[in-house]
Amino acid sequence: MNILLIGAQGSGKGTQAELLAERYKLKPLASGELLRTAIAEGTATGEQVRPYVERGDLVPDALMIELILDAMRRLQGEQGIILDGFPRTIPQAQALDARLNELGQPLNAVIYLDVPRDLLLDRLAGRYICRAHGHVWNIKTRPPKTQGVCDYDGSELYQRSDDQPEKIAHRLDIFFSETIRLLDYYERQGKLARVNGVSGIEQVNQAITQAIEKLAA
Ligand SMILES: [Zn+2]
């Protein structure tokens, strides 16, 4: 079984990917991690993507797809993959579909974790990190006992420049104008389920597994 999770930053996608990986024995393939691993392991494709990553350039779609296929060929007992972070555009999705179909390993289910933009902005803009160890706090969802101070080590909390509201708003704009078009693409294939991502982790997980079982049946 091969699954794609689509969700904006702050939608809880990473947590849900871990839970699904465990439940269905799937290999999670988040795009950033996929790049880092291939480079660290020095695979042939890893060597090809290295210069792009080192320059901070976008990795060409064909190479991203090659990394995914490499990982699929090297599954060790897992029953499939969970993609997260790629594809983001329709051309990427089409190219990936073509290669997966050649392998006879198409995507079975595409899950959109639906969280309204305002709520995402709220969640993300509340993130603060401690200077000593990088512990993550959130003034909205997980506040420290004393404002501005880490509960664990008493060090000062600060906001990463990436987590400042204007930068978050920009990233969300890109998601809601571009990535969201994938939903129509996969809906036409009858593979899409939209899951409300606002409730608690357990409830969201239950809704996702129900959707997957319906789509994969
Ligand atoms: Zn800390």
What do these coordinates show?
- Strand 5 and strand 6 form a beta hairpin.
- The chain is of the alpha/beta class.
- It has a five-stranded parallel β-sheet with strand order 2-3-1-4-8, sandwiched between helices. A three-stranded antiparallel β-sheet has the order 6-5-7.
- It is built from nine helices and eight strands.
- It has a single domain, classed as Rossmann fold, CATH 3.40.50.300.
- 28% of the residues are buried.
- The site of zinc ion (ZN) has 8 residues, from loops.
- Residues 130, 132-133, 135, 150, 152-153, 155 line the site of zinc ion.
Portion in helices: 40-55%
**N-to-C order of helices and strands:** EHEHHHEHEHEEEHHEH
Q: Which ranges are low-confidence, i.e. pLDDT below 50, for 5 or more consecutive residues?
A: none
Spatial shape: globular
**What is the CATH H-level superfamily?**
P-loop containing nucleotide triphosphate hydrolases
| CATH hierarchy: architecture | 3-Layer(aba) Sandwich
Question: According to CATH, what is the class?
Answer: Alpha Beta
* Largest sheet composition: 5 strands, parallel
Kindly report the average pLDDT value. 93
Structural class: alpha/beta
Please name the defining characteristics of this protein.
217 residues; alpha/beta; Rossmann fold; five-stranded parallel sheet; three-stranded antiparallel sheet; 8 strands; 50% helix; globular; binds zinc ion
List the helices and strands and how they pair.
Elements: E1 3-6, H1 13-24, E2 27-30, H2 31-41, H3 44-55, H4 61-73, E3 81-84, H5 90-102, E4 109-114, H6 117-125, E5 127-130, E6 136-138, E7 157-158, H7 165-179, H8 181-188, E8 192-196, H9 201-216
Parallel strand pairs: 1-3, 1-4, 2-3, 4-8
Antiparallel strand pairs: 5-6, 5-7
The chain binds zinc ion.
